[in-house]
Amino acid sequence: MMLRLTGLRRLPTSIALTATALVGSLALTACGGTSSARTSDGKLDVVASFYPMEYLAEQIGGEHVHVTDLTAAGVEPHDLELTAKQVGAVQQADVVVYLKGLQPTVDQAVGQSSAKHKVDAAAASPLVDHHLDEGATDPAAQSGAAHDHAAGDPHIWLDPTRYATVAKSVGSELAKADPANAADYQKNTDALVTKLAALDQEFQDSLKGVKSKIFVTSHAAFGYLADHYGLNQIAINGVDPEAEPTPARLAEIQKAAKTNGVTTIFFETLVSPKLADTVAKDLGLKTAVLDPLEGVKDPAQHDYFSVMRQNLTNLKTALGATS
To answer: Cα(212)–Cα(318) distance, rounded to whole angstroms?
Structure first.
């Protein structure tokens, strides 16, 4: 269950993508077509749309793949616009791993691609529209939230069990694209799924004894996490982390936070913390990071598991966990 006040989703402009795709297509034609994109060392050429998809491809593909992430490290992925080179990379790829509904320009490029092997994470783990505010303990939080994302909430990777389901689809598709190394892909998939199961258990054990089940975040990214672990999310913004809430919406958030004894306003790493700071200052509350893991600023220092465990630590502190 989740408490949420959503804003309207501001989609990135994609008018130029058709022209971009044409340029990319011409470049590919000049290079001899799109029949194969194997790298010079024989590895599969895998294109991933943003960090959670890149991480799966790298962990499961291992030494047999070369992975290109369309979204650079530290860049907020919602507003990604593709270059002609990136469109060409999608068209040439052996395997494309993406999440339909999150990045419209990527969706369009994938739709135009002749790549035979595509993994849509949203198909592997169908999206849910977290727009209902049923069960809110504060009537102010039941504000009739609107659908702010056409396909539903895309943040499925924040539930380790859903992420594991997507991992299995990635492993299966890599095996189809490269049967000679299918055993390695299966082995790597099994290992990753086991690690995700352990992470899931850590969350379950750590969040059993929380004093409060309600947390306030600047970005409505944590619906799946909240649902899976029996928590309630009050989100200042909808799926778009950079939307500007109205004064009335902020007033509702403040009232809900006071009523429910909230101690912390969470913000994220890839966008400005100004909004969370403002709400927290007005209420005399603390701020902390709850990272939606849409990207990792320094992949050499942090990965999916380290960030998720830091999220767990921060949630335990804010919710008064006893274990």
So the answer is: 9
